[in-house]
Structures are given as C-alpha cells and as structure tokens.
Amino acid sequence: MAEENPMFKIEETPYLNDFIDRICQLRNGIYQDTNVVAHVEEAIADASVQCQKYFGEVPKVNIHDKRKQKHFIYIPEHLHHISFELLKNSMRAVCETHPKNLKPIDIIIVDTPETVTIKIADKGGGIPRADMEKIWLYSYTTAVDPYGRTRKELFALLQKEAQSAPNREMLVALKNIPMFGLGYGLSLARLYARYYGGDCNIFSVHGYGTDTYVYLNDLSKSNAAIIG
C-alpha cells in the first residue's frame, strides 16, 4: 500500500477552493436528450489518454447498456466529469495491481423512469477498510506522482489551470491537470452527482476490487439541488 500523503497545507487550500467554487458555479446547458453512453465513452477516451501517459498501458473498458429508455434529461458536462474522475481511479487501481495482466473494467448502465444508475466495477485490488472513511475527504490521496513532483508543485499546476481557464472551459482544464495525487477527484464527482439530488457510493472488497455506483436524476422529474 502506498504511503499516505500529508493533508493540505493551509497555503495550498485556496487553489483547490477556487477551482471547486468555479466548477460548482458553472451553468452548463441541460439537454433534453443526453446520450449517456456517448458521454461515458468520451470519458473513457479522456481517462485512457491520461492512463497511457502515466502507465504506458490502459485496461479494457466494457460498457453494458441495459437501459429501457434512451432519452435522459441531464447536463452532459456533469455526466462526463463524474465518469472521467471515477474511471481514472479504476484505471490507476488496475494498472498498479495487475501491471502484467490488466483486468478489464465493466460499466453497467441501467435506468428507471426517474433515474439512471451507472456502475463501474474494477478488479484493482480494492480499498482497505481502514481507509474507507477517508476516501471522501478532499485532502486524502494515496497516490504518489510518478514524476516526483511535490504536492506544492501539483497544486501550482491546479492554480494555473484555475486562473487561466474561462468558466465555460473549466471542465476542459480538468483534463490537463495530473491524473492523480491532488485528492479531490472522488469527492468532486460525488458533489456533482449530489448537486441535482443524485449520489455516488462505493463498495469495496480489499484484495479484489471496487464497485462504484452513480445515481443521476432525470432533471425533468427532479428539482433537487443538494451540496454536501
């Protein structure tokens, strides 16, 4: 198990706070016919680029679309970012646990009249029980930057992207920062899901793998906006 990185220093948190504040204030378009599979596929492609860059290989990702209804009203940018962050975690876990025999990642998409549920299942070794209470902290990560950059240097990159990107391009900027090591990705994905009344839950078997469930509300049937 990788050594746990220290919590944020006080001078580092403004970079993250500014970045998250601007993301949460985005007003992206709500689409009447959000193509869930297409946006998940785009997230797979973007996460694969980063995974290839850091590990030199990418695990196969299988999509199993079990939806009965193909029309879903949602914000595509939010769907993409949630999927992107969760896939980065699964890809990293698989590459670190099975570097010589990459195990595939399975995505199952199902729906009800009110919701879409996305399950991301990996065989990346799982999460120790002692760490489960920490995984939602913005300041928690077990990752070590492969290029040896310090947390201060990583946060400097985050600050640069946050300051230079116009609000409408913040989600594009997220693709340009390090794949891991900042400790905000998982928490931010859940924040996105909860913003409109959905949620994100993780069930892990240490020594085997992790199943992540994302619940998204059809925005034509929900007015919920919850943060926290």
UniProtKB/TrEMBL annotation:
Domain called Histidine kinase/HSP90-like ATPase: residue spans: 76-216
Protein location: Mitochondrion matrix
Keyword Secreted assigned: no
Enzyme Commission number(s) of this protein: 2.7.11.-
Pfam families given in the database record: HATPase_c
Tagged with keyword Kinase: yes
GO CC annotation terms, alphabetical: mitochondrial matrix
Main location: mitochondrion
GO MF assignments: ATP binding; pyruvate dehydrogenase (acetyl-transferring) kinase activity
Keywords: ATP-binding, Kinase, Mitochondrion, Nucleotide-binding, Pyruvate, Transferase
Biological process, per Gene Ontology: regulation of glucose metabolic process
Highest taxon above the source species: Eukaryota
Family: Belongs to the PDK/BCKDK protein kinase family.
Name this protein carries in UniProt: Protein-serine/threonine kinase
Organism in which the protein naturally occurs: Reticulomyxa filosa
